[in-house]
Amino acid sequence: MTCDIIIPAHNEEATIGSVVNACQGAGVGTVIVVADACTDSTAVNAIGAGADRVIEINARDKGTAMATGLNLVGSDLVLFCDADLLGITPEIIYALATVGPLDGQLCALIDKDVGLTQKLGFPPISGQRRLPTAFARTIPMAGQGYKVELVIDAAVGKAKLPHKTFVIAGVSNPTRAFEDPVGWSAMWADLGVTSLRYLPDLIRYTLSH
To answer: Cα separation of 155 and 153, whole Å?
Structure first.
């Protein structure tokens, strides 16, 4: 079973090459980079690293970038992967693409993001997640920005899909979510409102852990 990979990217020229190399090295499917509102060499570097498809959009919205890439997927499974990962390897990408449950969500957390809430099975906020493509296409990702990950978790919980989270050791990322023009406080407020809106489904996610 193949698994295409979507890499949403905004000004990640320094890391996109190594992330694309890791994804191509895994040999699991088509590597799709969506360069969103980039003012640097992200798209050029992605092409140079061997990405199969590089799409440029101007949404400045992670959810929209993910939805755009999803339109190009031809595999039964789809893996979303952040563009700013450091230390990512083909072996990790291969595991993300192949480890069960194949009919649900597989999500990976880097070491520093593992806390008590994750150990208790709470829904993960992570850019590294794999889903059945047909199910992913039912989720309203466009326009969701950084809260798209909570929206995905809520959809998984509502559908009562199986899910699994594991830690990828030796990987880090200099997250840029806090550099968004809306600012830290507005972004966290947005995440909080989203959590309340989808609370029953997020609880279902946790209870089905």
So the answer is: 5
